[in-house]
Amino acid sequence: MDGTDEVGVGTDGRLRRAMMAVRRERRRTADELEAFRAFEDRVRAIDAKTTTARGRSTVSVAAVRSQPTSGLRRVRQAYETTVMGVPHYAEEYDDTYVESLQGEFSPDIASALTEGTNFNERCRQATLSAASEAQSTRELLVGALDSERESLQEVTEELRPVAEEVADLTARSYAEESFGSLDAYRARLHVLEEHCDDIAADRQASLFEQRRARWLPSSAPDIACYVYQAEAFDYPVMSTVAELTERIRTVRATVERSMARCRP
Fold this sequence. Notes:
Blueprint: H1 14-44, E1 52-53, E2 56-57, H2 70-81, H3 89-92, H4 97-104, H5 107-115, H6 121-171, H7 179-210, H8 223-227, H9 236-261
Antiparallel strand pairs: 1-2
Helix pairs in contact: 1-2, 1-6, 4-5, 6-7, 6-9, 7-9
């Protein structure tokens, strides 16, 4: 193989697979965003019931254990048909109703919605607030994924001509070349390596900025680890650039050996 493919760069099409992963994650995140919007709309349409005890309105999120009211049943139905109804839910999460509420909202809200009996106004507002926060998180993630997609596209466009030129230089025979031609090849290879170094530095700076974001799970240090966790790589750009740089150095060593044999 010459190290290039129809979309990505690298013998295994790493950047192409990375782009596919970003697009898949972006589509799933957008689906979840719409699902939480729909869930919030449905919850707003559910009347909150106020119970009284000694003449005072209940202020607790959860209520006394008994049979759940129709309001709680409607919340569950809304959640299961929206948030738990996204196409990828079983593949990516496969959580129960309680597990999903605990992960997306909080144990307190999960308890109120599954163990309580009264969908009161406090419970309603807490649920709406949690649904709104879930939307905000995914809105930020969609924006970050769009930026990652643009970054991958730019890097691919930058690396493709470099990979093509390195492939051409790798296939070339230097045995009969003059010293001057060999010196020119060596200089060009040096320029190509510097270009790879610049791309790597820019990407590293981008990853550093991403680590400052607050929307990622605490287990994911940056968007690369988050998006590519199911792949055989965490940093597709950095590893691709490293492989290309190694090929450049290998070709340059071949050129320099030829130069040593015909040095004037």
